[in-house]
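Fold this sequence, please.
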Amino acid sequence: MLKAILTVALLSAAFAACAAGQVPPGYEIIPITENPYYDSRPSINNHSQVVFATRFGDGSTQEIFLYQRGELTQLTDDDVFDGWPDINDDGTIVWSRKVGQNDTYEIVLYRDGDMTLLTDDAFSDYTPKINNLGHVVWSNHTTGGACTTSEVFFYDGETTEQITNDTPLNLASQSPQINDHDWIVWTRYNYCEDPYESEIRLYRDGVITTLTDGQAAPRGPSINNRGRVAWLFQIGPGEHAIEVWEDGVTWLLTDWGGGPRLNDRGDIAFQRWYESNSTYQLWLYRAGQFLQITDNSVWNYLGDMNQAGEVVFHRENYPTTDIGYMRLVPPGASNSSAEIEAVNVRGLNP
């Protein structure tokens, strides 16, 4: 049954006053959701379509939602856990769905109202990403415990290929990202060590390259179509920096930040932790300048960014989390985060 309470509330002046920091000209911040539930993992494509997951009740189930042009559509309505959605420019959506053998998570591809399982095996498949060719990557967790292991898999629209072979080494390749040239980046962990060790790896034209050397806990890479890669690494207890790699050259973007996301025009969105009020706030690196996008009393941390520089993010006030959206101002509207938008909800049960 559709959870009608998910309807987005009117954007209040109070929200607008505290939400925005240095929002770039031509953009505004609006909420996609304001509800008592836990909304997570927003992803945005270049047509400003946003997908995310919403957890109701005790958290044993979760549903997938699509936002486009001011309207929310509920794509799943069932008794299983659906999470980690991603969307490409054709509107094809992938996510993990807990319906596999031994109650494992499997990869679902959703196109034109049809849902197809890409995997169905004894292991759990997580964090799928889809590019504009319709190709998909994900990580498959082969073992758990102290030495968690996992592999990266790639689907080219017809066949599935295992990219890594880390299980025999007691290593875990996780959270892959893919660009439109089928370059894939991910974090390779050694959970057998305490603290764990990790490195950033790149797959290009059948060759795997390690991009990091001796950094403490690098993780969370992002890649764009220019082949630029960014990730965070640890520089002290609870302190993180962001490094960027391109064409074999690596440089430090900032010694304060994490969760980077890239687009092709050179924007880098990321978040910073503030000890003063124990919050994350969003930042944007654009045209050589650093802009603080949010400045408020709640956690604001990244989900995704598109080629237009629009950003979707988590706006967390525990135990609830909403989806925020820094969008291009629609034609004819004022550049004001206080603009009121009513969002309708309709259901779709595939």
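The CA atoms of residues 32 and 345 lie 11 Å apart. The helical segments are 13-19.
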